[in-house]
Amino acid sequence: MRRFPPERIVCLTEETVETLYLLGEQVRIVGVSGYAVRPSQVRREKPRVSAFTSADILKILALDPDLVLAFSDLQADIVAELVRAGVAVHAFNHRDVAGILAMIRTVGALVGANGRAEALARGYEERLVRVAAEAQGQPRPRVFFEEWDEPLISGIGWVSELVRVAGGEDVFPELAAQAAAKDRIVAPEAVAAAAPDVILASWCGKKVVPARIAARPGWDAIPAVRANRITEIKSPLILQPGPAALTDGLDAIVAALEAARAPVAESGGGDGRHRPWALSERHRAVLRKVPDDGWVEGSRLDGRCLDLLLRRGWIRRVHADPQGRARQDGYQRTSAARLALFPDGRPSK
């Protein structure tokens, strides 16, 4: 680099753009990838100079950058051309959560914002720990993450890790370590055999069509398809290895898994089935203590379970007993919980 810290930076992928904005160093950015959408003002503030595997080299050179930030072997040809033109380039090549955190710290170091970058990365580390802790003790749905539809490509490393953090289990964990998409191709029959409870899809910028997923031959028996648990996560949230994946991307996974754990609403919808994994033994034990009619005092129940059971619709608060006396801590079992506990119609005990 001609100057340190660099005053003019071109970012060829979106994660370094978002990181520089989060560090308050966006004034240094003079050019960005056409896929950069976070934060929203970047599309108004910064000129676009590249796609993902192609770039306008002359436009980049005209911006006279001190540093270009690139990502992965897929941009190797762009990097080589810029280096031959005398431009300083730093190419990231991470595929996991640890790499995302290292990228944030490295970008901070490159612009002389080490302290802010460390605080940002530590905040994400603490958030991951909190989310994982919240998922402890909950049912862990089996998840197929579909990164592309033709051919079928399963989720990359950081996505698989975030599924686990959120409380799910990747049905193809052995493929997640493969950096190249071609090495994560799976047969439709393999997905059907894996029987995922949830399908998360993000087709690299192409709109996901859940009906097309559900209509694949042999997929009608997959639990996720039967229960209509096919969820799109927008590519900018989950397929860029940066802050978005650790925040909104992770939140989208958590929401999809929470919805999968929830019972079918009493008002209708879904396929009417309740699967065994939707109730842990601890929560099942609490539900058996809650009557279908009348109420039970909250003090008689495991307080660690109450909020979760309420959120998922297994129990409801009742504010009066059968004689009309006010109760602020009374609980009653919902019909959804009764179906889950006694699918064969046996009376509750």
UniProtKB/TrEMBL annotation:
PROSITE patterns: FE_B12_PBP. It holds the Pfam family Peripla_BP_2. Residues 8-261 form the Fe/B12 periplasmic-binding domain. InterPro entries: ABC_transptr_periplasmic_BD, Vitamin_B12-ABC_binding. CDD domains: BtuF. Signal peptide: none annotated. PANTHER family: BLL4160 PROTEIN, VITAMIN B12-BINDING PROTEIN. This is Vitamin B12-binding protein. It comes from Methylobacterium dankookense.
